[in-house]
Automatic annotation (TrEMBL):
All residue ranges annotated as the DUF7825 domain in the record: 708-846
Ranges of residues in domain DUF7824: 454-678
Species per Swiss-Prot/TrEMBL record: Streptomyces rubrogriseus
Domain of life: Bacteria
A matching Pfam family: DUF7825
Name of the protein described by the UniProt record: DUF6493 family protein
InterPro entries associated with the record: DUF7824, DUF7825
Length: 911
């Protein structure tokens, strides 16, 4: 009897069915966010089944992208994160999946990821670890995941920015358990490699500082302790720390490494071996680091372990610096060394004489006293001649003293004529013609959306869009496809649950160039409904209630009008496109455009034409009169309006100064020629009175991106814009706000109209700004206005005097700003301003009415004024100056008052 055994044969169909079933279960678990079930399913799947499941997981990911912040998406993403990583075979693909942007904020835990990936080849795991470590630190790749992959693979530890910063946070975080930072570092098997990487990685110093502070449990203390125990190689750590300080960087970062260097407590031998490094740091490092290096070198010099030649080299470098504390300390050090070593005078005194040319007259006087005290120790005639020659750099009063003590050449009795140096007035930049091809329009719009623009770039791109929408709409749409594909409103699903039309209908404000072009492009592609455009254009825009409302609404109304015409009646081109980058439009060019509209039978857009009238140049009267005659001859209503505009003189509004807390602001009356009914309602807002007290508490124009376009609304009338922005600019001085003055003042200086009360007050606030970049912008504005003949120095000085008295502007900040202006060669301009500022402050000082804030820094202002007077050869008297100069003592205030009085009395101007 034969027995037949039936073998179980697994057919391909059965395998496919099993795979499909497994994939279905996996996808279902992923969608439900059941991570534990996903891990269990993955453990039971073959490599082939995992690969087969990946396309389904990829489809789920694509689906979830359209609703990234929904509850379903947040629930599913951790499970999807783990499953997608486990179902791919390539190291690069897995790394990309793990670090993807859409996975960044809802990831699987490192433990889960290490479990599903842990059965791979060690080389593959090392590849993934290093690929993840190469990602930018902002990618938010988990350090625990990277470190786990390094541990499983046994590969060398990565020392990239992402890995090192992750390690710092992991070891130093407050949530960590298991001893102190020092204990956790001591247990780290990769300590030496990662500590070495600390000194090479940018940004870690700041992170070290806020992670653990500066107490005994800080990172710097821990590293110093481990170095002392021999766990870390001392020479390597010290060398790396010094090299990091030499490389420079952000002050907050360097302070941490300086703290580490101090915690390491270098021996005298270690300090002597690095004398060249201390010299370099004392010469070029930030003040705190330079001061430490200076103290180390000083200790070596006083111990006789630094040669006079090396000390002279250090001295020349330090005395070139502007920090007064470093200069004083170096001169004090030289005095101590010269007292101990008479033979060093021949090398050290010429180095000390470098301070004769220092910008601070106190430093000059200290250096002169030092040289006078020790010049008797010099035996070489050539050294004495060198010292006498260097004395010619001294201020006149000190130079006259050096004639007797050092044998310096007496000053020339004939005053040297001062030649004022001002920057060349900025030349206007003419706008290039609109792009000739639709592809060029698309390229310019793409660049604008990516990085913003100025008035010229925006207006050129806007005109190009309008022209090509009129000429060949289909060609324009085709060219814009790559640009539009990246915009949020082009997505198939709604954004935040709203259609793009709803978004624009509810948010009329155009805060920047990108928002304006988003509206225009969305209109072209049918994403904004016609009735929405019609409603906004005809019903008007919402009043924001803030001081910027009258500046923002005209710009926004014109863009909405352009969008409406793109949909209903495309214009051949825009009338208000300026001729120049400031927004100014030549009258003859506007007449030519109106004539082209007349011949083409095109309908003029109200806001666009109104903006053109506001921009048209009227200060060139011959050109304006000729253009008015041509405009009237067109026989159109717009031609008649243009002719009247060109022939009508401007009506100046009434101006009233108002005080608010410590500030001085400007109130303007109504501007009749801007309130005419022939202007659209949005443009008539520009003629409304300006009342600084009526500013609404809420303002949506915080970004400031639109400010350049506001100045282009009224290019010949900067006062009307400056008055509305004056409170903003004052914040730079009063509340230390950053960036506002730097964003506004260049446009005020470049404007084509006259500078009045508001412009001068804006410059005054900028000169007293807290931040250096704002003060520098104010200095540039001051110099440009002076170069263009539009600066009233007396008015600016009077404003500054009152602002300092009220506490809105601090004298020390003002002194820094005017010193910068004087350093460019504008000594007469600066003196003309300061001669109005100083009497106000000196009067308060002499009568006891000065506040602490107004008195502090007054000595610095007097120093700048004295230098300007010396260089320009000014003569005369300054009210209340003698009362301060006759005081007892040698404070900076008194010594600089005496210096200024001497300069105004008799001293000849220095070359």
């Amino acid at each position: 009897m034969t027995t037949t055994v039936a073998s179980a044969v697994v057919t391909p169909a059965a395998t496919a069915t099993a795979t499909a079933d497994t994939t279905g279960l996996l996808v279902t678990a992923v969608r439900a966010g059941r991570t534990a079930e996903v891990v269990a399913l993955l453990d039971g799947m073959t490599d082939a089944q995992r690969r087969a499941a990946f396309p389904e997981l990829k489809a789920v990911r694509q689906e979830l992208r359209t609703a990234r912040w929904s509850a379903d998406s947040r629930r599913a993403h951790p499970a999807l994160h783990a499953a997608g990583a486990a179902c791919q075979t390539g190291a690069a693909a897995v790394a990309n999946w793990l670090a993807a942007v859409d996975m960044r904020w809802s990831q699987a835990s490192p433990a889960v990821l290490l479990h599903v990936l842990g059965d791979r080849d060690r080389g593959w795991l090392a590849d993934v670890a290093h690929r993840l470590a190469q990602r930018p630190a902002a990618s938010n790749v988990s350090y625990e995941l990277m470190a786990g992959l390094v541990r499983l693979s046994g590969c060398p530890v990565p020392t990239t920015e992402a890995y090192v910063q992750g390690w710092l946070t992991h070891v130093g975080g407050d949530w960590q358990r298991g001893g102190t930072v020092c204990d956790r570092l001591r247990r780290d098997p990769h300590l030496a490699e990662l500590v070495a990487a600390l000194f090479r990685t940018e940004g870690v110093g700041t992170q070290l500082g806020w992670l653990s502070g500066d107490g005994p449990e800080s990172w710097t203390s821990a590293l110093a302790r481990l170095t002392g125990e021999g766990v870390l190689d001392r020479r390597s750590v010290v060398d790396a720390c010094v090299a990091r300080l030499l490389r420079g960087g952000a002050p907050a970062e360097l302070r941490v490494f300086l703290r580490l260097l101090k915690d390491l407590a270098l021996t005298r031998e270690e300090e002597r071996r690095r004398a060249a490094d201390w010299t370099a740091l004392a010469s070029d490092a930030m003040p705190t680091v330079a001061s430490h290096a200076q103290s180390v070198l000083g200790a070596l010099a006083l111990a006789g372990e630094l040669s006079p030649r090396r000390l002279a080299q250090v001295t020349e470098a330090v005395l070139f610096r502007t920090e007064k504390k470093l200069v004083r300390a170096q001169l004090v050090l030289l005095g101590k060394v010269l007292t101990k070593n008479r033979s060093a005078a021949g090398e050290l005194l010429p180095a000390a004489a470098r301070a004769f040319g220092h910008e601070d007259s106190d430093a000059q006087e200290r250096a002169l006293k030092l040289v006078e005290r020790h010049v008797g120790k010099v035996t070489a005639a050539e050294v004495r001649e060198e010292l006498a020659g260097a004395a010619e750099q001294l201020i006149p009063a000190l130079r006259a003293r050096a004639v007797g003590t050092l044998g310096a050449t007496p000053p020339d009795s004939v005053p040297v004529a001062h030649e004022e140096v001002l920057p060349p007035p900025p030349q206007p930049v003419r706008l290039a013609p609109a792009p000739a091809a639709a592809v060029e329009v698309a390229e310019e719009i793409s660049a604008l959306l990516a990085s913003g623009s100025d008035v010229a770039v925006f207006e050129r791109a806007l005109d190009g869009l309008v022209r090509h929408a009129h000429l060949d709409r289909d060609a324009l749409l085709e060219a814009l496809e790559p640009v539009v594909a990246r915009r949020w409103w082009a997505e198939g699903e709604p954004r935040h649950g709203h259609r793009s039309d709803d978004f624009f209908a509810r948010r009329h404000e155009l805060f920047d160039d990108a928002r304006a072009f988003d509206l225009l492009l969305a209109t072209l592609y049918g994403k904004v409904r016609t009735d929405t455009l019609h409603r906004v254009v005809h019903d008007g825009l919402t009043n924001s209630g803030c001081a910027h409302n009258s500046l923002a609404r005209p710009f926004e109304a014109r863009v909405w009008e352009v969008a409406h015409r793109l949909r209903t009646d495309p214009q051949p081109f825009l009338l208000a496109t300026p001729t120049w980058g400031t927004g100014l439009l030549e009258p003859g060019e506007l007449v030519d455009r109106l004539d082209a509209y007349r011949r083409a039978g095109a309908r003029v857009a109200a806001v666009d034409f109104g903006q053109a009238l506001l921009r048209v140049r009227r200060d060139n009267r011959p050109a304006a009169l000729a253009a008015a005659e041509r405009a009237a001859a067109l026989g159109t209503e717009e031609g008649e309006r243009l002719a009247r505009r060109l022939l009508t003189e401007r009506a100046a509004p009434s101006v009233t100064r108002r005080t608010a807390d410590t500030r001085i602001l400007v109130e303007l009356g109504e501007v009749p020629d801007l309130r005419a009914e022939e202007f659209p309602a949005a443009l008539r807002l520009l003629g409304r009175p300006v009342n600084p007290d009526s500013d609404h508490w809420y303002c949506s124009h915080w970004s400031g991106a639109m400010r350049p376009h506001w100045f282009a609304l009224l290019p010949e009338r900067p006062e009307l814009v400056a008055a509305r922005l004056l409170r903003d600019v004052s914040e730079a001085a009063v509340h230390d706000q950053q960036g506002t003055a730097a964003a506004v003042l260049p446009h005020l200086a470049d404007a084509d109209g006259e500078a009045g009360e508001a412009v001068h007050l804006s410059v005054a606030y900028g000169l007293g700004a807290r931040h250096a970049e704002d003060r520098l912008a104010a200095v540039d504005a001051l110099l440009v206005l002076a170069a263009r003949g539009r600066l009233e120095a007396g008015r600016l000085g009077a404003d500054l005097g009152q602002l300092v008295r009220r506490g809105a502007v601090k004298p020390a900040r003002l002194a820094d700003a005017v010193r910068t202006a004087a350093a460019t060669g504008a000594n007469a301009t600066v003196w003309a301003v300061l001669r109005q500022v100083l009497p106000v402050l000196l009067a308060d000082l002499s009568t006891g009415g000065a506040t602490t804030s107004s008195a502090r820094g007054l000595g610095e202002l007097l120093a700048v004024a004295a230098e300007c007077a010396e260089r320009t050869g000014e003569r005369g008297s300054l009210p209340h100056l003698s009362g301060v100069a006759d005081r007892r003592g040698t404070s900076r205030l008194v010594t600089q008052a005496r210096r200024l009085r001497e300069a105004l009395a008799a001293a000849p101007a220095a070359a």
